[in-house]
């Protein structure tokens, strides 16, 4: 194979700093995968699940301090502070490299450094990009093998001088001679650094083994670094699901959707429509890369190859297709273990057996345990190809043409079930005002509070949020604006006065998607309101659904008083962005206020 001089030089530089005992190039083979699992089983770091219940599947238990992404320890080290913007933790890149070089020096002693060449997106697609992760964690290797395409084929595509994103990761626990390894090695919280150097297309992650902190292809590359590449190259890297929806006549449309963590994005991506004759297929459940094709249409790929989903709450009822996706070849992290070698979690859809081993490795009995058996952010890592409704075209290098973009928050009031933007810029305004409650996916003290989360990208924008929103505006400034996807704002989480959800969600969300598809196709009855186009009273198909006209009215009600309060909230939120906020968004907000006042 051709030698990639820059890659070789970088590996040597990192090896000199981290001082691993050996360097191992991952080929991505099944044999290699089996061997790594066996080594981790031997060391007590992994448990092989009962092959009759979960073939090819393993359980890992993290250190109790290393269970989620750590936003406080996540840094965007751009050359200039204002390029990281008001919403990211900025550190001077030179100072940060100095601090982290001290940490990385000798950090891989007693360990193997794995070289993982990986492709985000189908190998060779014009939208795909290559990264190389250097890590001392075999857990990362086996997860990256599911979540991305890794190994020899990627190196061949990279050739002798292809571009790649440099991803360096260490759990931060060097081993002395003969010292036994921890079950889940990681560094204390104040030593964890999830650092991005966007100008250098480089990621340095230290001290955590957890998914979003350590599987660097995912949030770090495919969102934070890729968002910067996308800005520079005129495309989009978004925190979005991609699905196809086919009507009973066989017409197929593609929808992407931005939803904050833990608002049912994975569930929506693979839901089974309650509407007879309709079909939903999954292209991706977390990230979309979108680029204009030669036909002038925005085309999306899923840069990932697997699902890294939250286990608790996942059941045959809430997400049948996810449950089927995780029947085999799946890595479970921080779920409970049953006595017969299978997994269990809260919300799996059936009662816990009498006895379990909980996510901390302790005995747990249904009779006398109040503690959760699985961590609320326990995860499964499963190959996307195992999803029964994976779209046959999910790996099409050309991507799929996007007809509609959904943005969705989690708001108990004010925001109706659905409204459609007047035009692209108004849609960008809607996306900029997405808001939801803080969830267990992040370590935070504010669980339950509402926070603004523009396009569900707040923790993932690799640069200034204002420039990001301007990039969205710029993307819409196309000569062929009629080919752009339409933008819709959904809120599945509206409640009535007694605090009860008004909308059933799950498979019934297809009823809302049906209206979206009708609107995209130039049909679908709508009324113009101050906040956007909305379905006229009977436009949402509620056939066979147990919902009253009054409830539908409440779901779609635009309350002038609450909306004027909402405008004030948005003003305060925008004020935090300072002068760099795009002028067009300021104008959108003013226009909304005027339309509401005139109501
Ligand atoms: C993660 O925490 O690694 C992750 C994928 O998060 P989320 O579920 O928020 O996308
Ligand atoms: Mn996500
Ligand atoms: Na998370």
Automatic annotation (TrEMBL):
It catalyses: oxaloacetate + GTP = phosphoenolpyruvate + GDP + CO2. Mn(2+) binds at residues 219, 239, 286. CDD domains: PEPCK_GTP. Substrate binds at residues 69, 210-212, 261, 377-379. Monomer. Catalyzes the conversion of oxaloacetate (OAA) to phosphoenolpyruvate (PEP), the rate-limiting step in the metabolic pathway that produces glucose from lactate and other precursors derived from the citric acid cycle. This is Phosphoenolpyruvate carboxykinase [GTP]. It comes from Acetobacterium fimetarium. The lineage of its organism: Bacteria, Bacillati, Bacillota, Clostridia, Eubacteriales. The gene is pckG.
